[in-house]
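Subject: for your reference before the review

Hello V.,

The reviewers asked for a structural picture of the protein, and I figured it would be easier to keep everything in one thread rather than splitting it across files. Below is the amino acid sequence we used in the manuscript, unchanged from the supplementary table.
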Amino acid sequence: MGKIVVIEHLTLDGVMQAPGRPDEDPRGGFEHGGWAQERNDPAMAAAMGERMGASWSLLAGRRTYVDFASFWPKQEPNPFTDALNRVQKYVVSATQDEPLEWVNSVLLKGDPAETVAKLKGGLDENLVVFGSGVLVQALMRADLVDEFVLQIHPLVLGTGRRLFEESTTASLRLVDSVTTATGVVIATYGAR
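And here is what came back from the structure prediction:
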């Protein structure tokens, strides 16, 4: 059975909202979209690739899937874009309808924790989650996340959606850590 690996960009105060682009996720009046871009570093891509493994599928919530599907297929060819277009994509959503627009996409309906637990039990490859905060929080409550790869940026935003809700409790073990030339700490944590 594969693992569920959550890969997230975070600020020091735990914000995960809209790291990639200014228009990525303006919910709640969030005005700091694209905050992670100036600290991109090749070490980040290497760490993600290492933790994802050779065999993986994308697991996404509806909002992240819709955003990715509207963005990545239109990008110039590069290793990340090619991998996202090629890989199997599982979309957890109660409101999304089929057919899904992005190639190799499968809709998972029903209770997120139950549906993902069943999927995980039937796969050999890792299920990798980017973004998808609501889904990740549901998976954490059900103890389904095996590993977190947190790319922690030396930045405090003060507002925005956070990965860990106030009521979240977890005890994790540090598996690996790397500091990039741009000051991002890539901390990999495993579930205890």
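For the response letter, the relevant points are probably these. The beta strands are 4-11, 56-61, 89-92, 105-108, 126-130, 147-153, 172-179, 185-191. The radius of gyration is 16 Å.

Happy to draft the paragraph if you're swamped.

O.
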